[in-house]
Structure formats: C-alpha cells, structure tokens
C-alpha cells in the first residue's frame, strides 16, 4: 500500500445494548426492526408491565428492574455483558425514560435506541394540540410541587403521571394555587385497546383513581383573584412567607438581572432569608439549580416551604453559618450574598469558590458592609450601584413618597486574573 493510500475503514463495534420503546399496544405496535431485536435478545430487561407485553416467542431471559432502579443499572448490565441484551422502555426511551440513565452509564456509543411514539405525542394527537406549543412536566419520581412553576393562565400542560393517584394530587395543587377552573383530561392506556379519557375541572374533580398508565392534560385557567406569578424575576412579595428578611420585589428583579442565570447553572444563595433569590433563579429554567444557605433553622424551613409553593422543590437548603458550611458544596456558577457580609472570610471564600466566568453579587443596607464592598470594588472592579425605591402612600388627604431603605449592590465577574486581585 502506498503512503498516499487511505487506511481501510475500521468498522465500529456493534452497540452492546439495544433499547426498544414499546407502547400500550404492545407487540402489535412494534415495527419489524424492533421485533427482530427482541426475538434475538438473550436477555430482556424492563418493568414487569413491559415484559408482560412480549409474546412467548421472545425467548430471552426476562429480568425486571429492581427498585431503586438507577443504582442498579451499571451492575446489572455488567453482570450480563456477554449477552445480547435488549432493554424495554415506555414510548420514547430518550424522553424522560431509561435511555438517559443508560447513556450516562454506558455512553451513547454502547446503545442502539429504537424509539416508539411517546405518550406526549399520542396525547397531542388526541387533543389536537401542537407538540411544540405544549409544555410537559413529569411527576414520575418527582414531587407534585414542581408542577406549580409551570402554571400560567391560558397555558396548556401535559403532566406525566407517577401512578393512578397523580390526577387527584394535580387537581388539589391546581385548586390550592388558584387554578381550580382549569380543565383536566386524564388519558389512559394511550395507543392501547383499553384507551380511555376522564374529563372534568380541578375544582370539581371527583373521579376515582383509574389506570396507573395515564397522562394528564391541563388547560390552565386561574381565578380572577389568583396571585399572578410571571415568568420573569420580580414576583410579588406576597408570594413569599417571610419574617421581614426578604429581598423586596424591585431589588430582587435587579439582582437576578445581574446574576444572569443560564440553563443548567448553579447558584449559591448565602444568607437565604426567605429564599426568594434562589427560588426565582430556579424558576428561570427547569435545569437551573440552587443551594440556599441559612443559619437560622426556622428560616431554613421557611425557605423550603417557599420553594415548594413556587414550584422549585429541588432547591437545596443548607442550615448553618457561612463560610463554615460552604466547604464541600458543588462549585457555583454564581454567588449571591444577601446577609452576613462582615463574617470573617465570607467574601474570600465565595470569591475563591467561583470558577473563571463566575459571577458574584452582594447586597447590603449597612454602612459597615458598604465599606467592605467598596474596598473589594476598588481591588476587583465590577459595578457598585445604589438601588433606591420609593412607594406612593397616603399623606393626609394627599399622596406622597415613602422611601425604602437604599440597597448598595456590588456585582463582579471573575476572570482568570481579576484586576487588582493579587491575593
């Protein structure tokens, strides 16, 4: 072979595991390609319901997933590494399905994925809803409270149910958040011979638990007096349970603006108070994460309640005094300090924890903390601003302005070597 001749192509190794999506219509709904994989498999892994949909001709050994599932994935597949393995999944394995766990454990090159239409596709087809205009919230293995963050008047939602009790729990949450007039339709066994639909409103939901394989369609309608929670930071102060330790609405909106959350990012909210900054950080995108650090145990419990109420139950609350409790927390993309600025070492610890590109924002109303922020501003740059808000209030028979306590805010982004940072 001459030096200029191309090297022969090396065939890629065959995927070790096939992942086959299957619907409520079972074997009859599978294409020939998927059937051939299942007939050839030496090992068939799936839920008991999914395995029960296969005919006797699929002669591979059948193994049900243990519970909890995720910790068992790697070991179970490793034990049968020499077998031709097929994993069964409901609908599309890569849409809130086992496909994600398998990809993270084995890598995409080790999988051959054969998807089936998802329950969302079936539901939108039955309802006449465009898929791209329909929001999806999964409650499978997740708290019902996360649905609250998706509630907006006029919005259409599809809720992936955990089991037969989920529709009643969803109806209760809708009523509790002022969305009792919302129409609910529970679509059961989509694509199967026993397909059914239960219809009603959240206010009047009285259906008994039905089939555990269901998806809930919600036409969101709020009552006229429901508290309006928008999709951008700056929720009404009345949205929070608090004892006065609350970053007020207009300052909160300005603070989130400079924190600039992006999908997937992690915030440290130090001196959490009521948790408003962390909660609204997480509401900007479902993949945003936050840790709220609060030294007072009662306030820490209040933060958790606020997070549930606002649809971000994944907010992690750490009870303890900063900076001591910051050790061991995952690396943040941004840090907000809303209290305790003068605690020895707090600013240093937060700054050192940030990677290049990370943002730090600190708010204060005291002269002592303002002097500290001024010193850091001189060394590191950034923006130092004073936020002042006044509200119109009655003054006798007239109206005047009542000035809120001004807030000094320092914000800075960390570079590989920030100007003046020679520590």
Walk me through what this model shows.
The protein is of the alpha/beta class and about 425 residues long. It is built from eleven helices and 19 strands. The protein has helices at about 30-40, 50, 75-80, 100-105, 120-125, 165-175, 250-260, 275-285, 295-310, 345-355, 365-380; strands spanning about 15-20, 45, 60-65, 85-90, 110-115, 135-140, 155-160, 185-190, 195-200, 215-220, 265-270, 290-295, 315-320, 335, 360-365, 385, 390-395, 400-405, 405-415. The strands form four sheets. The chain has a seven-stranded mixed beta sheet with strand order 13-12-11-14-15-19-16, with helices on both faces. β17 (about 390-395) and β18 form a beta hairpin. The longest helix has 14 residues, at about 365-380. About 35% of the residues are buried.
Structure described in brief:
The protein has 423 residues and is of the alpha/beta class. The protein has helices spanning 32-40, 48-51, 73-79, 98-106, 119-127, 166-176, 249-259, 276-283, 297-309, 346-353, 367-380, and strands spanning 17-22, 43-46, 61-64, 85-90, 111-114, 135-138, 156-160, 183-188, 196-201, 214-219, 266-270, 289-294, 316-319, 334-337, 359-364, 383-387, 390-395, 398-403, 407-413. β12, α9 (297-309) and β13 (316-319) form a beta-alpha-beta unit.
């Amino acid at each position: 072979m001459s030096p200029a001749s191309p090297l022969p192509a090396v065939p890629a190794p065959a995927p070790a595991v096939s992942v086959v999506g299957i619907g409520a219509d079972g074997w009859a709904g599978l294409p020939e390609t998927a059937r051939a994989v299942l007939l050839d498999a030496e090992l068939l892994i799936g839920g008991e319901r999914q395995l029960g949909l296969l005919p006797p001709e699929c002669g591979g050994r059948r193994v049900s997933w243990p519970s909890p599932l995720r910790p068992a994935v790697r070991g179970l597949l490793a034990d049968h590494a020499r077998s031709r393995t097929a994993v069964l999944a409901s609908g599309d394995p890569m849409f809130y399905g086992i496909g994600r766990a398998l990809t993270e454990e084995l890598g995409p090159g080790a999988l051959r994925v054969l998807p089936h239409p998802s329950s969302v596709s079936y539901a939108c087809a039955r309802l006449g809803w465009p898929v791209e205009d329909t929001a999806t919230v999964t409650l499978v293995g997740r708290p019902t409270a996360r649905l609250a963050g998706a509630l907006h008047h006029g919005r259409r939602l599809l809720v992936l149910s955990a089991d037969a009790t989920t529709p009643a729990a969803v109806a209760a949450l809708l009523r509790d958040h002022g969305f009792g007039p919302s129409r609910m339709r529970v679509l059961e066994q989509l694509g199967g011979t026993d397909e059914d639909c239960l219809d009603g409103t959240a206010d009047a939901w009285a259906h008994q638990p039905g089939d555990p394989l269901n998806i809930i369609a919600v036409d969101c309608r709020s009552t006229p007096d429901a508290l309006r929670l928008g999709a951008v930071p700056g929720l009404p102060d009345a949205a929070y349970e608090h004892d006065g330790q609350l970053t007020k609405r207009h300052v909160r909106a300005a603070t989130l603006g400079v924190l600039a959350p992006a999908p997937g990012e992690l915030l440290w909210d130090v001196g959490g108070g009521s948790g408003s900054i962390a909660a609204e950080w997480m509401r900007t995108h479902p993949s945003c994460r936050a840790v709220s650090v609060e030294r007072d145990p009662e306030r820490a419990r209040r933060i958790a309640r606020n997070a549930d109420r606002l649809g971000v139950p994944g907010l992690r609350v750490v009870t303890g005094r900063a900076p001591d409790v910051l050790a061991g927390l995952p690396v943040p993309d941004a840090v907000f300090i809303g209290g305790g600025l003068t605690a020895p070492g707090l600013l240093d610890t937060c700054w050192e924890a940030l990677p290049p590109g990370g943002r730090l924002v600190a708010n204060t109303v005291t002269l002592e903390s303002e002097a500290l922020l001024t010193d850091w501003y001189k060394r590191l740059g950034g923006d130092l601003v004073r936020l002042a808000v006044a509200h119109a209030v009655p003054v006798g028979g007239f109206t005047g302005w009542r000035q809120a306590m001004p807030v000094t805010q320092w914000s800075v982004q960390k570079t590989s070597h920030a100007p003046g940072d020679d520590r």
